[in-house]
């Protein structure tokens, strides 16, 4: 049986199965940045448009406010994402260094922590001791286990935070521009109504992108984004209309 499992055919099938389980789509590493940036871009831009329309601003003012907000908020969001990820990486590296130092200074205590972790998982007797022996035989494996199992830190310290930030900015601006299209190109139809339709379209596209990347089945993910985004857009419009009414 073991020999059959090592045949080239089995290896190919296994790799296909493994890739399906673990995911090899690099875009998956940026799903949070794409969805978060895109959704925020759509909603904040629509909020500005709603407020500007409610206030009775002329077309060029609406466009200027919308574009300025889109670029400023996009840059701010990208930088915030960069700082957040960089902070997570710095924290991971600090804790990793501390774990290395602890297995050097107090190896028996750290070994007992490994033993306790796997005892809770159901390992006992000789099997438990064998697991502890194998893990603690290599410092890198030891620390890696402590980082995941004890501290719950699963971060790639080599992650490029600037790339996540760039994806966030691009997604924010690309999707955030869509609600502005009826105003930028001076569409002759009801521009605000067209912006609402464009906003719903943008949310739907974002939902399908999420569906494609995560390989989810059905359209639940699409409906979630459209629903959440629509609620946020409705709230922003309500606030804009309310404040405009007070000012006027």
Sum up the structure in keywords.
248 residues; mainly alpha; 11 helices; 81% helix; 0% strand; elongated
Number of domains: 1
Note the overall shape: elongated
Low-confidence runs of at least 5 consecutive residues: none
β-strand percent reads under 5%
Give the total of beta strands: 0
Residue share in helix: over 70%
Q: Averaging pLDDT over every residue, what do you get? A: 83
Which sheet architecture does the biggest sheet show? none
Helix count from the secondary structure assignment: 11
Distance between the termini: 80 Å
Cα-atom Rg, whole angstroms?
26 Å
SS-based class:
mainly alpha
What are the secondary-structure elements, in order, as H or E?
HHHHHHHHHHH
- Identify the quaternary structure here: single chain
Description:
Helix 4 (59-105) crosses helix 5 (107-120), helix 4 (59-105) crosses helix 7 and helix 4 (59-105) packs antiparallel against helix 8 (161-176). The radius of gyration is 26 Å and the shape is elongated. The protein is built from 11 helices and no strands. The protein has helices spanning 2-5, 8-22, 31-54, 59-105, 107-120, 125-136, 139-150, 161-176, 181-184, 191-214, 220-247. By secondary structure, the protein is an all-alpha fold.
């Amino acid at each position: 049986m073991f020999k059959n499992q090592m045949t080239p055919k089995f290896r190919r099938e296994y790799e296909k199965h493994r890739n399906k389980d673990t995911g090899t789509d690099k875009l998956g590493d940026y799903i949070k940045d794409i969805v978060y940036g895109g959704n925020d871009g759509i909603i904040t831009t629509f909020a500005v448009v709603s407020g500007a329309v409610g206030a009775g601003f002329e077309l060029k003012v609406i466009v200027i406010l919308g574009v300025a907000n889109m670029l400023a908020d996009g840059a701010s969001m990208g930088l915030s994402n960069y700082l957040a990820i960089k902070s997570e990486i710095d924290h991971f590296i600090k804790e990793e260094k501390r774990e290395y130092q602890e297995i050097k200074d107090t190896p028996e205590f750290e070994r007992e922590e490994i033993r306790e972790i796997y005892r809770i998982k159901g390992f006992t007797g000789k099997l438990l001791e064998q697991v502890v022996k194998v893990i603690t035989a290599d410092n890198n494996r030891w620390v890696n286990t402590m980082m995941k199992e004890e501290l719950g830190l699963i971060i790639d310290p080599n992650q490029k935070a600037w790339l996540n930030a760039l994806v966030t900015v691009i997604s924010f601006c690309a999707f955030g521009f869509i609600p502005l299209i009826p105003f930028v190109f001076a569409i002759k139809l009801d521009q605000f109504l067209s912006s609402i339709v464009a906003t719903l379209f943008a949310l739907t596209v974002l939902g399908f992108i999420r569906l494609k990347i995560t390989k989810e089945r059905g359209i639940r993910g699409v409906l979630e984004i459209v629903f959440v985004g629509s609620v946020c857009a409705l709230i922003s419009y309500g606030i804009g209309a309310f404040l405009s009414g007070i000012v006027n």
